[in-house]
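Changelog-adjacent note: as of this version, every example in the card shows the full chain rather than a window. The one below runs 383 residues end to end.
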Amino acid sequence: MRGSIRKRVGKRGVYYDVVFDIGRDPVTGKRKQKWLRGFRTKKEAEAALAQAIAEVERGTYIDPEKVTLAEYLKEWHAARKHKLSLRTWERYGQLIEHWLIPHLGGIPLRKLSPVHLEKFISAMLEADRLDGKGKISPTTVRHAALVLNKALRDAVKKRLIPYNPMEAVDKPRKARKEPPALKEGELRRLMSAAEGTYLYAPITLAVYTGARLGEILGLRWRDVDFEAGCIFILQALKRNLKGELYFDEPKTPRSRRRIEIGPACLAALRKQKKLQAEWKLKAGSAWQETGLVCTREDGSPIDPHAFSSAFRKLASKLGIDANFHALRHTHATMLLKAGVHLKIVSERLGHASVAITGDLYSHVLPGMQGGAAQLVEEELNGR
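Full-length structure tokens:
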């Protein structure tokens, strides 16, 4: 397979172009060539040429003049199967198959314009949900736009298109919701009502640690250190689009963490261990040994979706309007109001950065400003 790099001097400086063979015309037998233009450095051009030749030889080269957006998105999505978590990859596929391809798939990749994308976003905002339960949420529209933006950004890197048309389009804004925080009495009522059931341990762990539901349901007894008074978040239990349960890495690298726990949480874990022993005795041969802290009465893992639904029902029965994630927000809010440093709170929550924690809980921080101002004045005035 042949190819070469051509140097040219333009008004804005030196550029490098790439030309390579893509085979022979089936009718005339003549060589067919493709050009990739506008590389700023020779090194970039050499890398692009090597990639193009490799793709032609493997039979995976995409001719940008002929490929449609649908064809490109399918190739792009397939190539990311081992670069994304299973859940994220499946979600990308759902958005591509149900929204992007039906609305934009027939358009040639090189002819996709900002006008096409603006019309798509407007149409999607007016569309109904796939399950027929009302209008689609702006969050779903935003996610579809973000997936398309990532795909088109990669297309630019591969020189399949000269620019990313999504950059010229206003994307739906992310709805900003202040995380709800439950009252102390509501937390106690929830834990009391759940005691003796499989709901108890996850609820208690969320209140005392602020961990995510999947992290709690994936917690193993070997990840609990009773002597040191801590737990280790090393995996999460998730469910794919087929309804199958699987264990995966936590959400971000910083989500793998050590969380210190106090006497009350340790006591709750010991109570859970005793309860599991009773369940095991009752289940007999039907007991499933998973080593998990939180299980159903037969030892099997708890489906995150089923648990979320059961929690909602329990909260509603108690007159509390909250989902399970509200327990995580409550944990963070309590710590911040108690004066715990933002970085420590971020580490307990397993956020990718302190900035994310500060942005999510910015509504809590202003209330702490008055105390900070008072402390400064007391120091300057010698108390």
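Structural remarks: The mean pLDDT is 89.
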